[in-house]
Specification:
The chain is built from 5 helices and 2 strands, in the order αααββαα. With 183 residues, the chain is mainly α. It has 2 domains: 60 residues, no CATH class; 96 residues, Cytochrome c-like domain (Cytochrome Bc1 Complex, Chain D, domain 2, Orthogonal Bundle), CATH 1.10.760. A two-stranded antiparallel ribbon has the order 1-2. A hairpin with a 4-residue loop joins strand 1 and strand 2. The two termini are 46 Å apart.
Length: 183
């Protein structure tokens, strides 16, 4: 019985030590974009940026062009589309009511006016299971499912401005719902 409090004390002390050490490893050391150079390690082998350049072929800081995550020289996924989230959401809002996106004479708003049929009260993020689809889908997949099925239109390209705008508006729409229905 006397040893139990000592054991609890040691367990708490170890937990605190692990929690204190965890942030260094929370920045994924296997992901060069997590910036391993910013990680603080006591082991120089755990921080590739502490090594001499070219000493470690896996050192992203030793690569030509320095930072592989920098924006210079990267291949864009599309022509620049938006300057900020609000611009994307504004385009998506117009698309939400656009019946010409498909051939069925309906728009997103036809089924989802006033937050209907979106299950926003469940407060779940994508990806999640959607009964209508019968599968776990991402938001982009759900948007394209609606484009192909109820709207009888063409799906959006995965890197398109239109898909980004629709996803941005859905997020803004969901956030508006959550703010209005806080409990």
């Amino acid at each position: 019985m006397v040893r139990q409090p000592l054991f609890n004390y040691l367990a708490v002390a170890m937990l605190l030590f692990v929690m204190q050490a965890t942030p260094a490893y929370a920045e994924n050391p296997c992901n060069p974009c997590a910036n391993p150079c910013a990680m603080k390690h006591t082991n120089p082998c755990a921080n590739p940026c502490a090594m001499k350049k070219h000493a470690n072929p896996c050192n992203p800081c030793a690569m030509k062009g320095a930072n592989p995550c920098s924006t210079t020289g990267n291949t864009p996924i599309r022509k620049h589309a938006f300057g900020n989230f609000q611009q994307a959401a504004a385009v998506g809002k117009k698309m939400w009511s656009d019946e010409s996106l498909g051939t069925a004479g309906v728009s997103c708003k036809s089924c989802h006016a006033g937050y209907e049929l979106l299950n926003l009260d469940k407060n779940q993020n994508f990806p999640h299971y959607v009964e209508m689809v019968g599968d776990v889908v991402t938001l982009d997949q759900m948007i394209n499912y609606c484009m192909l099925n109820p709207m009888k239109g063409k799906q959006f390209d995965k890197n398109s401005k239109d898909l980004t705008a629709m996803a941005a508006y859905f997020r803004a729409y969901r956030m508006q719902y959550l703010r209005a229905n806080r409990k």
